[in-house]
């Protein structure tokens, strides 16, 4: 029996997780996101029942920790395209978790196997939506014939006067 993906729920999980992830993804504090995801992991390990009220914590805790082998990406894309939530036996062969994350994965599965799979769908979507084609030369801010270095908008204003 196949179960349909609840795309409305997936989209909400993705938006909530992404907004949290982006708020900690700061080049000025490069370890902030790693520290935040580690804190989420510790909180969820201590009390997996929290996932009932804040399900977006699971994709946050697993962010950048779940790997999708190249051959499995085809299955994931097909499941998403067809709107099918994979069954556990199929799911577990298409993701790779870090050994240090296995306790969290087991705790999350014990709480809600569906949420664990949905969280991996969110992570798959986030990791694949960020892939983009290079911008055309017309949209680049830098051109080869331009001098590289300091730019001061006031220099242009002085030249115009």
Q: Which terms summarize this structure?
A:
161 residues, mainly alpha, two-stranded antiparallel ribbon, 4 strands, 56% helix, globular
Task: Write a concise synopsis of the structure shown.
With 161 residues, this protein is mainly alpha-helical. It contains 8 helices and 4 strands.
What does this structure look like?
The protein has about 160 residues and is mainly alpha-helical. The protein has one domain (about 5-130). It is built from 8 helices and 4 strands; from the N terminus they run E-H-H-H-E-H-E-H-E-H-H-H. The longest helix has 18 residues, at about 5-25. Residues about 130-155 have low confidence and may be disordered.
Total count of domains: 1
Helix content: 55-70%
Mean pLDDT: 85
What class do helices, strands and sheet pairing give?
Answer: mainly alpha
How many helix segments?
8
List the topology elements.
Layout: E1 3-4, H1 7-24, H2 32-46, H3 57-61, E2 66-67, H4 70-82, E3 84-85, H5 88-91, E4 96-97, H6 102-111, H7 113-129, H8 153-160
Antiparallel strand pairs: 1-3, 2-4
Helix pairs in contact: 1-2, 1-7, 2-6, 6-7
């Amino acid at each position: 029996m196949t179960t349909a993906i609840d795309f409305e729920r997936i989209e909400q999980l993705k938006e909530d997780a992404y907004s949290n992830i982006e708020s900690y993804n700061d080049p000025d504090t490069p370890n902030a996101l790693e520290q935040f995801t580690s804190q989420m992991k510790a909180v969820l390990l201590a009390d997996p029942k929290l996932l009932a009220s804040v399900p977006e914590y699971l994709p946050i805790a697993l962010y950048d920790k779940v790997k999708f082998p190249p051959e499995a990406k085809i299955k994931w894309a097909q499941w998403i395209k067809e709107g099918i939530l994979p069954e556990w036996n199929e799911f577990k062969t298409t993701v790779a978790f870090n050994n240090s994350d296995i306790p969290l994965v087991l705790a999350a599965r014990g709480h809600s196997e569906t949420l664990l799979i949905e969280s991996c769908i969110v992570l798959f979507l986030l990791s694949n939506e960020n892939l983009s084609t290079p911008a055309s030369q017309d949209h680049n801010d830098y051109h080869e014939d331009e001098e590289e270095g300091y730019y001061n908008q006031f220099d242009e204003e002085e030249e115009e006067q």
